[in-house]
């Protein structure tokens, strides 16, 4: 996932023409919360970016979270990345991290989910055992 500051810049860009107050209302959050997201003081939850912010701001979820598509990952025919696969990577990351003694911070969760998404998007998702091992290695590294 992009840094909090980078996501914040993309949120500002995505709300072009809308005041911060109007954008916060559209997104169902407080103005102060949006301000913290936009200045990088707080990282928004990945699920919120996927399910609320991107659709309501009418931007690509991948662009909002990561910026340009990573090298080696193809966009789908309509120019968007596979949101279902991104949701799967987030869900599997959360499930795998649930057993940890210390909860995984949101920014680390997003990083693991993004790396795992890249793994799955490159066609590596055909071996569930190898995928689970890869995900555990990612979690151990953060």
Automatic annotation (TrEMBL):
<feature type="domain" description="HTH cro/C1-type">
    <location>
        <begin position="15"/>
        <end position="64"/>
    </location>
</feature>
<dbReference type="GO" id="GO:0003677">
    <property type="term" value="F:DNA binding"/>
</dbReference>
<dbReference type="InterPro" id="IPR010982">
    <property type="entry name" value="Lambda_DNA-bd_dom_sf"/>
</dbReference>
<dbReference type="InterPro" id="IPR001387">
    <property type="entry name" value="Cro/C1-type_HTH"/>
</dbReference>
<protein>
    <submittedName>
        <fullName>Transcriptional regulator, contains XRE-family HTH domain</fullName>
    </submittedName>
</protein>
<dbReference type="Pfam" id="PF01381">
    <property type="entry name" value="HTH_3"/>
</dbReference>
């Amino acid at each position: 996932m992009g840094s909090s500051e980078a996501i914040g810049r993309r949120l500002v860009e995505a709300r072009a023409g809308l005041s911060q107050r109007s954008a916060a209302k559209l997104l169902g959050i407080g103005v102060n919360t949006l301000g913290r997201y936009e200045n990088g003081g707080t990282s928004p939850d990945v699920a919120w970016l996927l399910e609320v912010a991107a659709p309501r701001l009418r931007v690509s979820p991948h662009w909002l979270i990561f910026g340009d598509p990573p090298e080696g990952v193809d966009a789908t025919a309509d120019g968007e990345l596979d949101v279902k696969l991104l949701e799967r990577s987030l869900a599997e990351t959360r499930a795998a991290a649930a057993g940890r003694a210390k909860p995984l911070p949101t920014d680390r969760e997003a990083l693991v989910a993004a790396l795992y998404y890249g793994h799955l998007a490159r066609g590596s998702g055909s071996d569930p055992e190898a995928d689970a091992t890869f995900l555990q290695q990612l979690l151990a590294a953060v």
